[in-house]
Amino acid sequence: MSEIIKVENLIEVYSDGTKAVDDISFSIKEGEFFGFLGPNGAGKSTTIKILTTLLRKTSGTITIAGYDVMKQAADIRKIIGVQSQETTVDGDLTGRENITLQGHFHQMNTDDIKKRVNELLSLVGLEEAADRRGRNYSGGMKKRLDLATALVHKPKILFLDEPTTGLDPQSRAAIWSYLEKLNKEEDITIFLTTQYLEEADKLCKRLSIIDAGKIVASGSPIELKRQIGADSIRISLENCQKDSSNAKELIKSMTDVTEIIDSEECLTVYAKNAGLLIADIVRALDSSDIRIASVTFSSPSLDDVFMKHTGRRIRAEDFVKAPSTMGGRFGGRR
């Protein structure tokens, strides 16, 4: 597959001097479902705004389907769809009227609009609510309607900036289903930014983890988790500052331990057969009078990938993690 999005050495510096995007490069193949995963303020939304021509870059080179993002913005807008974090549903219009209006913004003819509206209402499961005003839609229904309006002109590329933020699990799962169908059945290239680990893991065939404006890891979810190569044991000590060095010395000599790093809890140990090793760790630390506050372990996750590259975990207030099995529009609205 050929590259449909190519970003090289992208930098974005705000007027106050903040470097929101710090020299990142990546590419997306045609038909790919690609994701950006990172905490709030990492540079995800800034990147997507630049790619969709809503924000001018400071420097770097970007092409979308062969078009230069600076010189051929109008051409790019014709072939992309965008769903932002905030819905752009007009509450005074019905669901059908919202989609129809977007069709007119894209200068589609009336017959094509009518046919497309019916297709999209069926796709996102809003046939029965099609003639209700948008203000009476639930949050999940508004997200689905927003997605439909982004698709009215049959874009080649769909940009989604945290499209399921704030939704309940059932609504989120419904959006996931629609997105998978679009990617697989209609071969739409999708670029997703997300604040959900499970979302990135389930939907993205390939992703980049971004933090503080820099890409810290890239690959498929399976490849990234495989790099960890072991289960993780998270150890919180009552006096981490005093005891962490001694604890590391005791643990690193144990069989199957592959790596120990400092972490927000105190220490994270990577080891094979972590469940069997925990008892040995507890006994060793206890015999050396090192008091443990808590010990937990899990199989490799994208959260572990993030921590290995940044030294910290994805914070609960920014992200939702699936339970472990182990313990703006173009054409008219501005």
Describe the structure.
The protein folds into 2 domains: 3-220, 3-Layer(aba) Sandwich (Rossmann fold), CATH 3.40.50.300; 230-299, 2-Layer Sandwich (Alpha-Beta Plaits). 36% of the residues lie in helices and 26% in strands. It contains 11 helices and 14 strands. The chain has helices at 44-51, 73-79, 95-105, 110-123, 139-150, 169-185, 197-203, 221-228, 240-252, 274-287, 302-310; strands spanning 3-13, 19-29, 33-37, 59-64, 67-68, 80-83, 157-161, 189-194, 206-211, 214-219, 231-237, 257-262, 267-271, 292-298. It has a 6-stranded mixed β-sheet with strand order 6-7-8-3-9-10, with helices on both faces. Strands 2-1-4-5 form a 4-stranded antiparallel β-sheet, covered by helices on one side. The protein has a 4-stranded antiparallel β-sheet with strand order 12-13-11-14, covered by helices on one side. The two termini are 34 Å apart.
The assembly state of the depicted protein chains is: single chain
Computed over alpha carbons, the radius of gyration is: 23 Å
* Residues in β-strands, percent: 25-35%
Order of helices and strands: EEEHEEHEHHHEHEHEEHEHEEHEH
The tally of helices reads 11
- Under the CATH scheme, the architecture of the largest domain is 3-Layer(aba) Sandwich
Number of domains: 2
Q: Report on the biggest sheet.
A: 6 strands, mixed
Number of strands: 14
Q: Considering the protein shown, what is the CATH homologous superfamily of the largest domain?
A: P-loop containing nucleotide triphosphate hydrolases
Q: Order of strands side by side in the largest beta sheet?
A: 6-7-8-3-9-10
Shape: elongated
**Beginning-to-end CA distance, first to last residue:** 34 Å
What is the CATH third-level topology name of the largest domain? Rossmann fold
**Which regions are unreliable across 5 or more consecutive residues at pLDDT < 50?**
316-334
Provide the CATH top-level class of the largest domain.
Alpha Beta
**Structural class computed from helices and strand pairing:** alpha/beta
Query: Helical proportion?
Result: 25-40%
Average pLDDT reading: 89
